Amino acid sequence: MSKMSNLDILLSGLIEHGEAILEIAKEMISMFSEEPAALPEKSETPLSFTDLRAKLAEKSREGFTAEIKAILISHGAEKLSAIQPSDYETVLKEVEALSHE
What is the pTM of this model? Predict the structure, then answer.
C-alpha cells in the first residue's frame, strides 16, 4: 500500500472518530445541562477528491471493486480521477449504497 493511500485511510478514520467524539460531547452536555447542546454544527463543505478516494478505497477493500468500476463507467469515467467534481456526491451515494445483503 502506498504512503498516500495509507495516509488517506488514516485521515478518513480520524475524521470519523472526530465526528463521533463531537456527538458524545453533545450528549454529555445535554445530560448535565437543562439547555440543548450548543456545540457548533458541522459546516457543509464540498466533498473533496481525497475524501471520495478514501471512501471508494474502503468499499473496494470490502469486495466491491467491480461495482465501483461500473459506477465510475456509468459516469463516463474509466478511473476516479476522470470523475467531475460536480459528480462526487452522486458517486459517493451510489458507492455507499453497495452492500453484501
Answer: 0.57
Calpha distance 54→45 (Å, rounded): 16
Helices 49-59 and 3-31 cross at an angle (nearest 10°) of 100
User: Could you tell me if 71 and 95 are in contact, meaning their C-beta atoms sit under 8 angstroms apart?
Assistant: yes
The residue ranking higher by pLDDT, 92 or 35, is: 92
What's the N-to-C CA distance of the chain in angstroms?
A: 28
pLDDT surpasses 80 at 81 = yes
For residues 76 and 84, what is the distance between their CA atoms, to the nearest angstrom? 9
What 8-state DSSP symbol labels residue 35?
S
Give the H/E segment covering residue 65. Answer: helix 65-74
Instruction: Check pLDDT > 90 for residue 67.
Output: yes
